[in-house]
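pipeline/complex-builder :: batch 7 item 3
reading input block
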Amino acid sequence: MTLQKKYKILVVDDEPDLEPLLLQRMRRAIRAGRYEFVFAGNGLEALQRLDQDEEIDMVLSDINMPQMDGLTLLEQIPDVNPNIRSVIISAYGDMKNIRTAMNRGAFDFVTKPIDFKDLQVTIDRTLIHVEELREALMARDKLVTLQNELDVASNIQQSILPTELPREVDYQMFGSMKSARNVGGDFFDVVRLPDRRVGLAIADVSDKGVPAALFMMSTRTLLKGAAIGAINPGDVMETVNQLLCEDNEAAMFVTLLYAVYDPETGRLTYANGGHNPPLIVHQDNTSTLLPPTEGLALGLLPDYEYQQKTVTVEPGETLVLYTDGVTEAMNANEEEFGVERLQDIFTESYPREAHAITQLIFDAVDEFAGDTPQSDDVTCLTLCRG
Amino acid sequence: MALSIERNDGIMVAVAEGRVDGANAQEFQGELSEAIDPSDRAVILDLEEITYISSAGLRVILLTARALKRQNAELAVCSLSDAIREVFEISGFDKIIPVRESRPDAIASFQA
């Protein structure tokens, strides 16, 4: 690091000889515009000066002075400006005062008679430290700002997830997303369609964090529009895929499963765009994965034709939509949670209630992962047919 | 994640090892794009030693395929373990990136 701007140094000493001597011996550095010296006669004056002049970068102070000595000054400086560093001038061999000064936060010391070459090295070293401290503080402020923005973004993202999920006499739904970072790339959505039908979606954007969150927001908006405009899941997928493929220079993509459920018949028509196959839990506590539809993650290939399939969710059956954050959750032994553990949740009797089931899944993943940090967003959407 | 490179007759073979996830995808992408030479006509990604690949890792493969296309070169992946093959199949990546059984198969496909 090199010192580039002009630094202001406050010199505190009651002996009037120091001022002309210092100005004379440092004249080159002063003329080159590297230092500017200002002077105070004792600790009290120095504090007033520091209070009035925020441009002072460091203090060079004698110890023995009337009114307020250098050691007391050292204690007071942080109250005026905590980022100022001080260098103490002590008598040669006065180890007791030097130790006290260092313990009270002096950055360094020089001894009398002053070796001006050594003083200049000491001043520069102190100023570099001051400069590094300022940069670190600025970086910290930036981080705090960024963190605050991310918190806001996180709230916005959670707030677009549906909260009013259907709780009808013949079926009910519940969903939840837990991001690995402040913002995530997963989402789920539920769209009310004509004739009591309901569209349900679960999605996972490639990558995590802010880029994924931005892509997730646009996917979710496109999906909402497409879902209201068309009834066939395959058509909905094609519309969203087409729009996502346009201007997708960043090569982001999203796996998306979109389904339309008809509570009158229990029929579920779905198209799978590269997403983990949902689980259907039967009345006898066994479960199977929904058969695949020839699908591809969205945003990869324009004009791709998405196929759809129809199954029936029987009364008493449960449909579980999830992202790979569930099945790929890791434990300390680097084992994955996997589909089988997801199925195991339902092999014993379980509450036939969507909210409780979603909670069971999150709890099982948490318990499995233990202290291993969550590396991916975990999302789950459950539908129970009564 | 570790990457080693071999090259023969304009075909580059990149052997990747370990996990590719959100944490090291960018590094993987940087190393891969640095390794590719403008004179390469094909790149084979040997994934035999890859234990896990996340969607961020798949995106690197997609970006590499696109970059190669711009220099009229092709990309194939080979030697996928069952777990990695499943990721390719579920996401549909096997439909846009040629998947070969073995490295000789992949090399042969570019020599035909």
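note: Chain B touches chain A at residues 21-23, 25, 52, 54-56, 58-59, 62-63, 66, 90-93, 95-96 (CB under 8 Å).
queue -> next item
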